[in-house]
Amino acid sequence: MPSSQVMRRPSGMGAEEIYEILRRDIALGRLMPRQRLVESDLCERFGATNHNVRRAFDLLDRIGVIERKANRGVEVRALSARELQDLYDIRSMLQAEGVRRLDVDRLDELADRLTAINTTYEQALKEGQIEAAVDANDLFHTTQFDYCKNAELAALQLNYWLRASAIISRALIEQGSSLKSLQDHWDIIAAMRARDMARLEELTVTHIRPPLAAYMRVYGLY
Question: Which PROSITE patterns does the record match to this protein (predicted)?
Fold first, then answer.
């Protein structure tokens, strides 16, 4: 849906609020790859100052979901097949290392939290509430980052999660992909409870690949 057709939010928004709404619009496909983000239109949409819109652009640029182009301004970034593969190669490395650095003394606590989150995720999928499902899926994964004993690694995991958010969320629109994601989550929780760290690492890495395949198929990037 073009940005001009997206429902307006309350006026006077700050940069971080604008950033989060635009990040969500990109993740859910309301703003498409190569779609222009016109500063004046966004100022009107959010009732915001130019400064806050530009600051939101800075935050979006930092996670790599927009780009600034000469004579075209700002647009949603369209990644090539090679860039997508490179992004997911790094994500795979971070996922594996994140499991190795999990606080094993708190695995039961983490598994309990993830069980509650995945139950919410399952219900949202059953009811066809895609935005609620995206929120629950985000929370499932970012909660795991909180249990990484290396703060720098956790920050990197979060950054690359945000960079891949459009890829991840796009896949959840497809029923087959979302149901596979749900089952993967239950398998991840089971591996945690069993203290099977090798299995947990394997699941955590393989889990991130189907959304990439779905995204590349949708945008003809094979």
Answer: HTH_GNTR (PS50949)
d(CA 42, CA 36): 11
Overall average pLDDT of the 45-58 stretch:
96
Task: Classify burial at 187, counting beta carbons within 10 Å of its beta carbon; exposed 0-12, middle 13-18, buried 19 or more.
Answer: middle
HSE-up (13 A, CA, CB side) for residue 146:
13
Backbone angles phi, psi at 68, to 5 degrees: -100, 125
Radius of gyration for the alpha carbons in the chain, expressed in angstroms and rounded? 18
Q: What is the DSSP string of 114-132?
A: HHHHHHHHHHHHHTT-HHH
Q: What is the pLDDT of residues 207-216, one digit of tens each?
A: 999 888 888 8
Provide the β-strand partners of residue 69: 73
Report the sign of the C-alpha dihedral through residues 117, 121, 126, 128, in that order: positive
Task: To the nearest 10°, report the CA torsion of 40, 45, 47, 53.
Answer: -50
**Beta-carbon contacts of residue 110 (< 8 Å; ≥ 6 apart):** 102, 103, 143, 144, 147, 192
The pair of structure tokens assigned to 133 is: 């499902």
Domains of the chain: 3-76 (1.10.10.10), 81-218 (1.20.120.530)
Alpha carbons 170 and 137: distance in angstroms, whole number: 12
Q: Give the number of residues written for the chain.
A: 222
CA distances from 167 to 23, 36, 137, 210 (A): 12, 19, 13, 10
